[in-house]
Each structure stands twice: as structure tokens, then as C-alpha cells.
Sequence to fold (294 residues):
Amino acid sequence: MLVDGKWTGPIFDQHMHLDRTNRFLDAVSDFSKSGGTAIMLVHKPAVSKSLPTDSQGYREAYSETISMAEEIRRNFDLEVGLVLGPHPVSWENQIADLGLKKSTELHLEAVSLALEHIDSGTANCLGEVGRPHYPVVEETWEAANEMLLEILSMASSAKTSVQLHVEDNGEGTCQELSQLCRSAGLPLDRAIRHFAPPNISSEFTHGLSATVNVGKGSIATLTETAGRSSAPWGMETDFLDDRNRPGAVLGPKTVPKRTQELAFSLLSSEWEESKVESLMQNIHSDWPKSLYGL
Ligand SMILES: [Zn+2]
Fold:
């Protein structure tokens, strides 16, 4: 609902990492106090520490993330969903130590384990899975795409949603990912390009859904393209809660702030109030609820 141009309904950050050794609940408090009502907590890979080297290691790492979600629910009046899965950067990093075959096997085992949690209801979405966002040698790139196709097929059979971590090659990335999802039989409204740029026009997204990383300047492009989007989209910060990388991503207050900026911007560009309300309702409640079953 809009009151004097201000959105008073739900506000959902669909991609946030948290860390017990850093801000954790303090960051959630910032989000909640700024008007946030729901988050998807995304499993944070221990890339800078030590990555799991077997499925037991993944079991333990996942259970830590699950317990963090429970702790947030106990302390705040927020909806908290969980995105569980092995990060593609972990896979690429571990090729050096484990070799391509073993690293791929471990990665797929970690996907299966995450799908078990989703099936039993302790997690709500697979992710972030995808492919490296930086240049890699040809052999690795081919292997990454083969593996991703397999992961998407597994997600399709499990009927879950997937948050995708991919490179930023603009429209080309959307086109390739849409094609991969179609090959895997995964519906595009359940395949979410995470860290997406703010162009949400269907010419750009090729039908792939997105969580837009709502940085400075994103509101102008969202306002300009929102009328031409066919695929559903949401908002995220990709907050990392990492003291070694302050400012690398957006802070926990950002989604509530940009939501109000977008409402103001759309109303100023002659969108009717009821149209802005239904867009906000879809971004922050209807679509994410259907994705994650919250
Ligand atoms: Zn992330």
C-alpha cells in the first residue's frame, strides 16, 4: 500500500550473506529498522578460510547456515528463507587442489545435499550455483557449462527455484542462461539471475527472471524499463558481511531505501498509484512467496 507516495507493504531482500564472526544480527537489525520485512539468507562459502573437501564438510557448513536462519527468526519479526548450495567459485578454486573430476563430483554431491534440505523444508531455494564470473581457461569454462546444465536438470526434477551466480556479459549472459534453462526443462520464472543489472526489459532479460542489485543509479534504469518487462524480478543487496571487503557490495539498509526511491520515481513519471502498488506487491511478496514457498 502507498501512503503519501511511500510504500508501507512488505520489503524483501532476496540475496544476503551473513557471518557470525562479523555483523550478523546487527546487520539484520539495520535491515529491519529501515522497513525490511523478509530476507533470503544465502549460504556463504568459506572461500577465504577452508572449503569443505567432502560431503560431510558440506553437511556441517550447511547446518551452520541453517542455524543462523533459525537464530534470525528467533530474534526478529522477519520472514527468513534459506538459499543453499555450493558456490561456483568454490568449485573453480578447488580444481587446483582436487583436480577437475573430483572437484566436480564434490560440487554435485553438495547440490544433492542442498536439494535434500529443500525437499525436507529446511531450505527454500538452490543457490547460489552457476559459473565463474571471471575469465577461466577454455577447458574449465566448458566443464562449468556442462556441470551447470546438470545442476539445472537436477533443480528442474526437484521442482525448486534456483539463484544463479554468473558473469556479467549483459544481454548475452541472459540469452545463454535462458537457453541452458530451457535445455534443462527449468521454467524461467524459477531461474533467477542474481546480481542482475537494472535493465529488466524483455529484450534484455530474454525471459530470465532476476534479482536486481539495486546500487546507486539503478532506479533510473528500473523506472525506464519496468514497463517493458515480461519476466518477474526482485531486489537484492548481495550483502557479504565481510570485514575484509567493506563497500564491495551494498549494505543491509539499501533495499528498503531503493524501494521508496523507486516508488517516488515511478509516481513522478506518471505511473498510476494502483500500478505502482501492484508492481511493489509482486517484487516484495507475490513472486518471492511463490518461488520460495514462504
Ligand atoms: Zn552472493
Q: What stands out?
A: The chain is about 50% helix and 15% strand. The two ends are 20 Å apart (CA to CA).
